[in-house]
Structure formats: structure tokens, C-alpha cells
């Protein structure tokens, strides 16, 4: 790459980053439903036609923001997993849950973008799936380590749920038993329910010591997936 090409590439990266930062400020002020390319262009002192060269539509900008948010959350979960590599799987699970909560509290508007109300008129493309799966893959890895090591004790499945649990296991983690796959999906949903309740105010006047409450709840979720006590 020539010097001129390198300079153009760096300039494009810088402008792209500035556009996304301005869009995140708009998300915080107005919400995702009101995200406007024209408003972002005005804030940056750009004409709309110039911004369209970077993001041809609102949906493409939303997709970029969503992927960034999922990747940032996934990185937080992976760092927590790696930092807890030497502790038992159950404690590793709790550490990752706490990292998810910490990220959400530090990035409330980005959390709302990916786990809040759907944006009217927007449908996330498949390009968001790899980033969205990162946290789930961390939890699958923890269960896999336990399954291959000390073992899992996931609760038995009712007969009518077993076919669906087997399908989930085949799709998500073929090396895990169906009981573990079903328990994992339930725990994953409950984790983000806990985080969302705290972030969006449903715990107001209900839970005061939220950190302690969350840690206990995360440990119970670990138990529900079959992770035994250390």
C-alpha cells in the first residue's frame, strides 16, 4: 500500500469512528428509534451526501453500532473468563456474569441497543450473529470444560421438552447433553433478564444491595446448568 493509500485508509477509519461516536451520543440522547444520519452529519459538520459514503443508510449505521456493542460485551466476557482460567467452572461462570453486568452498567445505551426494545423498521442482518454469539460461546465453553472434567449435573428433562433440547444441543453445542443445552439457554435468558431489570429500573425500591443480589443469582444460575460447587 502506498503512503497516499495508507493516509486515505487512516482518514477513513478516523471519520468512520467519529461518525459512530456521534451516533452513540444520539442514541444516548434520543434512543435508537430516532437515530438520524442527517443529525449525525450536522453534529460533525458534514453534508449528508458525504456521510452516505461511509454509511449508505440508517440501518447500516445501526448494524455497525450493534456489532460494536456485541463485540465490546463479548470482549468483556472473554477477559473475565481468561482471568478466571484457574478457578473451578462455577466460579468462572459467576465471574463472566459479573463482567456482563459491569459492562451493561458502564454502557447502558449500548446495552439497550442490543437487548432493549426492537428498533421499529429495523431487522438485524446475519452479519450481527458472530458478534452476538460471543457471550454465549463463553458460557458454552465453561459448561464444556465442566462436562469434560468434573462433570455436569443438569436437571432431568420432561419427556415433552427432550426433542427441543436435543435440537438446541445439536445447534449450539453438540458435545453437551440436551439437559445442559436447555439449562444453558434458560440461564442465559435469566441472566440478561436480571441485568435488564437492574438497568431499566425494575429493581427500584425492590433490591437495594444489587451487587450481592446479582452475585447470588448468578451462582444459582450456574447451579441450574449443572455446575457443581467448587
Describe the structure.
This protein has helices at residues 3-30, 37-44, 48-51, 58-83, 89-106, 108-115, 129-132, 134-148, 162-172, 178-199, 210-224. With 230 residues, the protein is mostly helical. Helix 1 (3-30) packs across helix 2 and helix 5 runs antiparallel to helix 8. The radius of gyration is 21 Å and the shape is elongated. The model has no long low-confidence stretch (mean pLDDT 93).
Summarize the topology.
Elements: H1 3-30, H2 37-44, H3 48-51, H4 58-83, H5 89-106, H6 108-115, H7 129-132, H8 134-148, H9 162-172, H10 178-199, H11 210-224
Helix pairs in contact: 1-2, 4-5, 4-6, 4-8, 5-6, 5-8, 5-11, 9-10, 10-11
Give a quick precis of the structure:
By secondary structure, the chain is mainly alpha-helical.
Ends: how far apart?
A: 54 Å
Helix content: 55-70%
Order of helices and strands: HHHHHHHHHHH
Low-confidence stretches: none
The chain-level mean pLDDT equals 93
What is the total tally of β strands?
0
Structural class: mainly alpha
As a percent range, the share of strand residues is: under 5%
Q: How would a textbook summarize the main sheet?
A: none
Tally of separate helices = 11
Q: Compute the CA-based radius of gyration.
A: 21 Å
Shape, principal axes of CA atoms: elongated
Amino acid at each position: 500500500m502506498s503512503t497516499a493509500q495508507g493516509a486515505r485508509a487512516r482518514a477513513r477509519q478516523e471519520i468512520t469512528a467519529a461518525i459512530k461516536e456521534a451516533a452513540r451520543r444520539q442514541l444516548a440522547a434520543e434512543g435508537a428509534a430516532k437515530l438520524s444520519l442527517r443529525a449525525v452529519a450536522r453534529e460533525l459538520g458534514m453534508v449528508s451526501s458525504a456521510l452516505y459514503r461511509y454509511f449508505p443508510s440508517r440501518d447500516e449505521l445501526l448494524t455497525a453500532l450493534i456489532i460494536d456493542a456485541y463485540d465490546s460485551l463479548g470482549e468483556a466476557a472473554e477477559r473475565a473468563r481468561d482471568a478466571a482460567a484457574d478457578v473451578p467452572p462455577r466460579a468462572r461462570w459467576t465471574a463472566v456474569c459479573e463482567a456482563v453486568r459491569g459492562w451493561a452498567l458502564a454502557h447502558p445505551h449500548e446495552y439497550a441497543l442490543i437487548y432493549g426494545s426492537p428498533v421499529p423498521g429495523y431487522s438485524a442482518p446475519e452479519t450481527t450473529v458472530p458478534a452476538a454469539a460471543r457471550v454465549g460461546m463463553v458460557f458454552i465453553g465453561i459448561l464444556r470444560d465442566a462436562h469434560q472434567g468434573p462433570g455436569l449435573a443438569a436437571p432431568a428433562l420432561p419427556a415433552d421438552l427432550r426433542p427441543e433440547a436435543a435440537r438446541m444441543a445439536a445447534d449450539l453445542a453438540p458435545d453437551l447433553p440436551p439437559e445442559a443445552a436447555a439449562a444453558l439457554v434458560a440461564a442465559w435468558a435469566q441472566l440478561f433478564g436480571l441485568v435488564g431489570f437492574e438497568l431499566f429500573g425494575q429493581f427500584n425500591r425492590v433490591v437495594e444491595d444489587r451487587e450481592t443480589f446479582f452475585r447470588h443469582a448468578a451462582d444459582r444460575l450456574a447451579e441450574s446448568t449443572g455446575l457443581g460447587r467448587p
